[in-house]
Backbone:
């Protein structure tokens, strides 16, 4: 089998696997739904996910060890991930092939020539990782305070080593190295002395904006699949709703359509994961290269080169996407091969990164998190509408873990989880947030799917016991994601004398977090004078009543001086009839005054019981701006958002 | 391109159009104008869009009742739901009295909430499975089970145990789709007017059986067999809470079941209709089979320590001749299992 055939088979397989895992990422009990399917596998395999979260959290989340494996493969064999595995890469390659399959060789060689702008992806990577690394650097600075002796010893060792290298004249420019090294140490010491300890987290994980695996997950799950399910409802689950999916889809389509301008535009110019692999794979053991056998310089190897890595000239190892087309195209005997030794034709192992570019990208990246935090969206100006799913960690840490892959949003059985727009700050773009108006039913009490779908621990995988606060978790109480507030200006029984309490009916906790306060209120024009009374029926004066209007079972009439009213069971325009079993012993006198009153049960929220699930908000019949709404107040994940006075009682 | 090429040629170099060329162009323009004009005439609509109350009214549900003058109620005490059901049906003349060979039977369960069966907020899966078995044994061509739950439908049917129980019993679970709801108007109804009703799954159905638990309900007083029909409504049905008694009566007008099963083996005494704790339940050890939902619910009220007079919809339904709240007048057969 030709190596390119094997590559195509692998691409088709992994793309199909990606689609399958995307389809299977739905809570349910059938074999085609999420049971044992490793729905986060591609995310775990993505090395940028591992590197990014290690920088922000200083720990490797279980499962992301797959990413380390991929790094090892890259060091040994080059960017196998890009050429053989990445489903987004396969999509780009397919679109590029579709566009250029019949093009002239001359044009295809031009399209696949190396462009200096391919360095942009490295700068994007540097900026994204610098944004993620802010805390690690701060950590290192503070480490010198925490362990001054160790820091001094390390400093002395580095200085001595540099001095030794300089004095023995080992390596070119060793004096310059000494100066730069000493300067960096001085900056470090200065920062350690100047920066106050106990600064908040100043790292943010934004790699997911451009990382192809989260990007493809997001686009497939939130934009492509819902469109497909609208058209193919009998075969696919019913349509789902995602706020702002248009932008997600537009980013995806733009990335695809850019292949019309330059083949694998995204891979060559944008992809930060590819850039990371390019850096890791610059000295790869196995590499494509010339063998030294006679080359006729026919340039056929350049015709279909996916990575624009110039296999005919000195090959650019970091740009090579391992598409293997050059090996397949090469018409002569073995001038090109994939083997564990450098090419005699020469290799370009650099990436085109300039020192200036590096410093600029790193500085820009480092500035991202501190600049974002000036707005204090993780502090005093926190967004009360940002209701995170149960198990989500505190917001500052959440922003260092969430990939915006939206796996949680995909598996949410009720569709209440939505990708955040820009309303909660651009750092939170496309992260999961509850919108209780959308979906089938708020956040269900007996569901813990989102935390188990999260590949990075931004949402902790809760057990039902922990979510409910039962068993070992009894002292903690249930996990609260917010608190319901009744808007008394919009609530039907509070504002408009209409019975309702749908919120109370649907409150799923026990005892209910919504209880009712019962009152009887005189309705509009409800105070009437009796003009005649016969048995249980009273004739009254005043404006005509709509027949049956006050006979729904919710209305009573109460004579002046009576403590309890009597239920009205029928009415005409000018008469009321009460339940015969509860009628007056003596018919009331003509001229007596009565009040027609409605029985209202008004919802009241008990903040000690409410978990913020939002079922009440979802069910509220005031359809636009709901009359009972959740805000993230009192959420468990943030002590500073608590509302209630804590007592030991 | 040579800059000179972009200069227009001198006028004398342009030949005048030939007669043939002139006729061809005129014809093309004429056809294009005629096509545009006729398309415009064809699409011309003098009526402005939008009649907010366009009357779309499909037929709702047929009458599924079997009127043969037989006994209309049995009250069985015990704890074994399947055995109580069998005994209750036996007292009514057997399932064969209601389900004939070839019938397509719909079981309207209460699957409103995504809670485990043991919490009693939904129809008991064992009971539903037994009823499905009995219908199939009586020769039913198919037994269907449906509800339009409040919580996420898939989650509800799976978590409350109805989905696996129903499938194991050989019945078909129908999780409603948007297209299953058809806008309809109840003749004589004040509330169910141009309202989406779950009628799609009823295509070809010849018998309808309601199975509901006995539950406390703060707004309606109690949720039993009549309130269970709420699950046939679609749309923003929560608005009907503003006249809860009115909607329950209209539902009883709309739905004439073959019979109903009211399961008061345990009753939800507090915190209904969602429940959520075993502390909300009480063993009331009663199961009712009745062709009269009003009578069944009137008895159910007593399990919740109330009477039919506490539930205005029962009195109103009786007034509308939908059944009797005085269930003793039906001379129900009583038995213990």
Residues:
């Amino acid at each position: 089998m030709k190596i390119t055939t094997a590559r195509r088979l692998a691409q088709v397989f992994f793309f199909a696997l990606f689609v399958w895992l995307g389809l299977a990422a739905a809570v349910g009990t059938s074999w085609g739904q999420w049971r044992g399917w490793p729905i986060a596998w591609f995310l775990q395999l993505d090395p940028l996910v591992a590197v990014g979260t290690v920088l922000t959290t200083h720990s490797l989340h279980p499962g992301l060890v797959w990413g380390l494996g991929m790094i090892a493969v890259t060091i040994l064999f080059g960017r196998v991930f890009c050429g053989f595995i990445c489903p987004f890469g396969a999509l780009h390659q397919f679109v590029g092939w579709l566009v250029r399959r019949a093009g002239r060789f001359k044009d295809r060689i031009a399209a696949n020539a190396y462009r200096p702008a391919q360095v942009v992806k490295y700068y994007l990577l540097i900026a994204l990782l610098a944004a993620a690394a802010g805390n690690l650097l701060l950590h290192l600075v503070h480490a010198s305070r925490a362990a001054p002796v160790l820091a001094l010893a390390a400093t002395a060792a580095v200085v001595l080593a540099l001095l030794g290298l300089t004095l023995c004249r080992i390596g070119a420019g060793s004096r310059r190295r000494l100066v730069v090294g000493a300067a960096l140490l001085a900056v470090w010491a200065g920062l350690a002395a100047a920066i106050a300890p106990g600064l908040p987290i100043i790292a943010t994980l934004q790699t997911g904006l451009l990382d192809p695996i989260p990007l493809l997950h997001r686009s497939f799950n939130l934009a492509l699949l819902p469109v497909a399910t609208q058209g193919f409802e009998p075969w696919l689950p019913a349509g789902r709703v995602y706020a702002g999916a248009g932008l997600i889809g537009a980013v995806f389509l733009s990335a695809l359509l850019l292949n019309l301008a330059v083949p694998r535009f995204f891979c060559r110019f944008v992809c930060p994961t590819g850039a990371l692999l390019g850096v890791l794979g610059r000295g790869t053991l196995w590499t494509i290269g010339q063998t030294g056998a006679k080359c006729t310089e026919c340039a056929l190897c350049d015709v279909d080169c996916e990575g624009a890595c110039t296999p005919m000239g000195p090959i650019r190892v970091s740009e090579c996407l391992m598409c293997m087309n050059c090996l397949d195209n090469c018409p002569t005997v073995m001038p090109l091969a994939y083997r564990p030794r450098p090419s005699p034709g020469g290799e370009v192992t650099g990436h085109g990164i300039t020192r200036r570019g590096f410093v600029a990208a790193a500085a820009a990246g480092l500035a991202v998190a501190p600049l974002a935090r000036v707005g204090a969206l993780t502090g005093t100006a926190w967004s009360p509408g940002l209701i995170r799913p149960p198990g989500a960690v505190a917001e500052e840490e959440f922003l260092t873990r969430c990939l915006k892959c939206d796996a949680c949003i995909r598996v949410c059985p009720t569709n209440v989880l939505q990708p955040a727009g820009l309303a909660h700050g651009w750092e939170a773009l496309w992260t999961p947030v509850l919108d209780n108006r959308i979906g089938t039913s708020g956040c269900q009490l007996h569901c813990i799917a989102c935390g188990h779908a999260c590949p990075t621990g931004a949402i902790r995988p809760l057990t039902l016991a922990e979510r409910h606060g039962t068993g070992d978790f009894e002292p903690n109480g249930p996990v609260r994601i917010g608190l319901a507030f009744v808007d008394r200006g919009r609530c039907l029984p509070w504002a408009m004398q209409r019975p309702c309490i749908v919120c109370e009916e649907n409150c799923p906790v026990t005892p209910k977090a919504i209880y009712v306060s019962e009152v009887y209120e005189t309705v509009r024009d409800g105070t009437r004078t009796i003009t005649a009374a016969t048995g249980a029926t009273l004739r009254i004066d005043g404006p005509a009543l709509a027949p049956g209007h006050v006979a729904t079972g919710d209305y009573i009439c109460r004579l002046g001086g009576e403590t309890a009213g009597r239920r009205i069971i029928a009415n005409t325009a000018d008469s009321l009839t009460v339940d015969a079993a509860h009628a007056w012993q003596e018919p009331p006198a003509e001229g007596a005054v009565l009040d027609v009153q409605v029985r209202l049960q008004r919802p009241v929220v008990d903040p000690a019981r409410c978990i913020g699930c939002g079922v009440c908000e979802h069910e509220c019949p005031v359809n636009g701006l709901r009359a009972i709404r959740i805000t993230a107040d009192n959420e468990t994940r943030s002590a500073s958002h608590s509302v209630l006075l804590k007592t030991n009682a | 391109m040579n800059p000179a090429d972009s200069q227009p040629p001198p006028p004398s170099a342009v030949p005048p159009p030939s007669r043939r060329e002139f006729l061809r162009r005129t014809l093309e323009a004429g056809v294009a104008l005629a096509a545009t004009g006729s398309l415009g005439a064809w699409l011309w609509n003098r009526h402005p869009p939008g009649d907010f109350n366009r009357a779309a009214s499909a037929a709702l549900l047929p009458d599924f009742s079997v009127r043969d003058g037989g006994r209309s109620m049995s009250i069985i005490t015990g704890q074994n739901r399947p055995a109580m059901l069998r005994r209750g049906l036996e007292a009514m003349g057997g399932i064969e009295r209601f389900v004939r060979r070839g019938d397509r039977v719909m079981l309207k369960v209460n699957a409103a909430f995504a809670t485990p069966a043991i919490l009693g907020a939904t129809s008991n899966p064992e009971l539903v499975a037994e009823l499905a078995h009995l219908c199939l044994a009586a020769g039913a061509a198919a037994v269907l089970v449906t509800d339009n739950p409040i919580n996420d439908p898939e989650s509800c049917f799976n978590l409350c145990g109805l989905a696996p129980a129903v499938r194991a019993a050989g019945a078909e679970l129908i999780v409603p789709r948007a297209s299953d709801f058809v806008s309809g108007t109840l003749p004589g109804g004040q509330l169910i007017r141009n309202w989406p009703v779950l009628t799609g799954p009823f295509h070809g159905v010849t018998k309808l059986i309601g199975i509901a638990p006995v539950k406390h309900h703060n707004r309606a007083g109690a949720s039993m067999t009549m309130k269970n029909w709420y699950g046939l409504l679609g749309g923003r049905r929560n608005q009907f809470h503003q006249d809860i008694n009115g909607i329950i009566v209209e539902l009883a007008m709309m739905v004439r079941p073959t019979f109903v099963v009211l399961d008061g083996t345990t009753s939800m005494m507090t915190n209904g209709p969602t429940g959520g704790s075993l502390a909300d339940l009480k063993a009331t050890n009663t199961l009712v089979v009745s062709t009269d939902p009003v009578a069944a619910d009137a008895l159910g009220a007593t399990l919740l320590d109330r009477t039919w007079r506490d539930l205005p919809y029962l009195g109103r339904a009786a007034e509308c001749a939908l059944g009797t709240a005085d269930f003793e007048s039906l001379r129900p057969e009583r038995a213990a299992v």
Observations:
- Chain B is about 30% helix and 20% strand.
